[in-house]
Amino acid sequence: MKKLLYFIIAILALIALAVGAIFFFSDTIMKKVLDKELNEVRDKYGVKVEYEGLKFNDLSSMTFNGISVYKLDANKSVTDTIVTVDSLTATAQLRSLMKKKLKLDRLAISGVEVSLKMKKHRNDADADSVDIEKKDENEGGKKSVYEKFNQATGLFFRMMPEQFSLSDLNVSVESDSFYAKIAVPRFQIKDDKFESDIICQEMTHEIQNISLTGTYQRKNQTVSADIQSNIDTAKVIVPLVEYKYGAKISANLFSLKVSVDADENAELFKIRGNASAEYLSIYHERLSSQTLNCGAPSAEFLLNIDKNSVELDSSTVVRLEKLEFSPYVKLEKGDNFGLTIKLNKERFPADDLFSSIPRGLMPSLEGIKVDGDIDYHLLFSFDMDNIDSLQFASSMKKYPGFKITKFGNVDLRKMQDTFTYLAYDQNVLQRRILLSEQNPNYRKLDDISVYLKNAVLFSEDPSFFRHHGFLESALRESMVKNIKEKRFARGGSTISMQLVKNVFLNREKKLQRKAEEAMIVWLIENNALTSKERMYEVYLNVIEWGPNVYGAAEAAKFYFDKEPSKLSVEEAIYLAMIIPRPKKFKWCFDDEGKLRDSYEQYFSTISGRMLNAEIISEKEKEKISCKNVELTGDAAKMLKSGASVTTEEEDDVEEAEEKPSIFKKLFKFRKKGK
Fold it and tell me: What angle separates helix 551-560 from helix 569-577, to the nearest 10 degrees?
C-alpha cells in the first residue's frame, strides 16, 4: 500500500502543477513546465505519468482526461500500466495559489483502474508489490520521522477537499499465488460527511459488501469512520492482511476517529483519537491454533511523533472487557532501532483480568473465577546500539484475600495427587505415564540419587526452590542472546515453566501457549497449589531422557542398567547434560565410545557447584571427569550399533555458567550424614 501512495502522490503532483501553471503561466509555458516536472516525478518515483487531454474550466479549475501511470524498469522503459483515470476535475483555492501552496476546494475523479502485480509471496525476502524506490534524502540528508508525517498529513488535508467525489474505482492485486479485487462504486464527501460502498474479494473468500461512513473536517484536521458489512450477519474481514502478514482480522464493526496537530516550532506531531471494534476476532498460525475472540476492545490514544521517535503516550487508555490499562510504548528510529514498553497497573480486582482474557488465548483457564486484588508492572527496553543494556522486569503481585474460587477447564491442583502424564513426541502421543507408586517406573524423590537431583537442579534451574516460577535474569539473558543472534538460540524457562508446559499444555510452539504457560505458573506458584518438592518429583519422573525414555528410573536403566538411587556423580552429571537434547545422546560420544573432551568443562562446572553445596568433597571433585562415564544399558548397544559420528554432529550443549558459592547455604538435597 506504500507503493500505491506513491502513485497517488504522482497524480496529485500533476494536479498541483497544472493548476499552478494556469495561474502563473500561458498555455505554452505551462506545458513546458508540466513536461519538466513530470520528468522529475519519473526520476523520483520510478513512474511515468501521461494524460490525453487537458481542459481549463476557469482560472483555478481544470479537467484532465485519460491519465495513465506506468511502471518503469531500471532503464526507464515502460513495463506495466499501473493506474489509469478516465477523468479528473480539480478546483484550487486562489489564495492558496498566491501563497504557492496548493489547496483544493473541489475534486472529482471517475473511472480509476489500479493494477498491482506482486513479484513474490509474502514469506519471501522481497515480497513487495512493485519496485518503486522513493529517495528519502534531500540536500539536508534523510528526512526525520516528524518531517515525513508532517509532509504526508499536510499533503492529505490540502489535497483532499471538503467537496469530493470518486466513482468507479477498481483495484486489483495479484501474484502467482494470490489475487484480490477491491471495487469502490462511489465515494463522496459533502457537508463534512462521507459515505461509500466497498466490494472486496480476496482469494477464495466470499465477496464482502462493506459500508464506509464517517466525517471529514479539514479545518481542524479530523477524520472519523465506521466500517461494517452491508449484510447483517456478516463480519468485515480486513483485506490484504492475510496475504501480507498471514493474519485474519475481522469484526462486526470497526470505528476510528483521529485528529492531527503539528507544532512546527517544536517539531512535534500529535495524533489524538479513539478506536474500537465489536466482536473482534484475530487468527495467526504463529499466535494460536485457535481464533482469538476479543469481544469489544477500545482505546483512547495519543501518539507523539518527533524527529526520531514515535511514542504512544501513557495517557492512552485501552479497554478490554472489564480490564482497563495505560501502556507506554516508544519506538526510536535513529541510526539504530530502540524500543521501550512500560505498563503499570496498580492494585485492581483480579477478576477484571481473568474475565477479560480473550477466548482462545488461554483455553485451560476459561471459566476460572477469582476473588481479591492484584497489581502488574512491566518494563522492557533495549537499544540496538547496546543490546547488553536490555532491561526486562515483569511482576504480578497478589494482595491478601486473593484466592481461586473456581477452576476453569483444567484443575491446576492435579499434580498434588495421582494423575496420568501424556508423553508426546512431535505432537504424537507416545504413551501414558501414571504418576503413582502403582507405576513400577515411578520413583519418589527420596529414591533418586542425591547426585542426580542436584546435577539436574544446578543445570536446569539452580534457584528453583527460591523463585516463584520465573527468573527474570534468565529471561533477560535469553532475550539478549536471541536478539544478537537473530534467532531463538536460548530459552529462559525455569523448571516450573517446563513442567507446566509438559503437564498442562499442548506441544505447539505458539505465542498463545507461552502466555498461558506464564499465567498457569503464576497461579500454581503463588497460591501453593502444588509444593515445590512435589513439582520436582513429578519433573524428574516425566522429563524425556532418550528415545521413548521418560523419568529417572527409565533413564538410569537405559543408560547404566541400575536404579536411579545408585547413580554415581559422573553418571548423574551426564544425565543432566543431555536433558536439552536427549535423543541426540549418541553424538556426545567419539568413535571409541567415550564422551568428547568438549564436555569436560560442563562436568567441572556442575561438580564445582556440588562441592560448594557440600554434596561432594574436594577429593571427590578432583577425580570427576567426563571420561569416567561408561554406558552399560541398552544405550550402550545403540551406541555400538550406530555409525561413527563426526564433531559436526556433536550436540552443542551449552556450558553452564559459574555461580557463586551461595549454593552452600541454599541447597535442598544433601548427602546423608553431611
Answer: 110
- Specify the higher pLDDT residue, 662 or 616: 616
Residue whose cell numbers read 498463545: 512
Q: Amino acid identity, residue 244? A: K
Q: What share of the chain is helix, strand, coil (3-state, %, to 5)?
A: 30, 35, 35
Q: Which three cell numbers stand for residue 192?
A: 463534512
Query: What span, in angstroms and rounded, lies between the C-alpha atoms of 182 and 602?
Result: 61
* Nearest by Cα to 281 from 317, 242, 312: 242
pLDDT per residue over 240-291, tens digit each? 888 788 899 999 999 999 999 887 777 888 999 999 999 999 999 888 888 9
Instruction: Retrieve residue 294's grid coordinates.
Output: 476479543
DSSP string, 140-151: TEEPPHHHHHHH
Residue entry with cell 548427602:
671
**Model confidence pLDDT, tens digit, residues 34-71:** 666 677 777 777 788 888 887 877 767 778 899 898 88
Identify whether the C-beta of residue 603 lies closer than 8 Å to the C-beta of residue 624: yes
Retrieve residue 271's grid coordinates. 495524533
Beta bridge partners of 174: 117, 179
590-619 residue pLDDT tens: 888 899 999 999 999 999 999 999 999 999
pTM over 0.90: no
Report the length, in residues, of the chain.
Answer: 674
Q: Locate cell 476510528: which residue?
A: 256
Mean pLDDT of all residues in 135-152: 64
Query: Strand 337-349 relative to strand 369-371: parallel, antiparallel, unpaired?
Result: unpaired
Torsions phi, psi for 206 (to 5 deg): -65, 150
Please give the Cα distance from 440 to 551 (Å, whole number). 12
Cα 127 to its chain centre, rounded Å, is 19
CB 378 within 8 A of CB 342: yes
- SS3 at position 352: helix
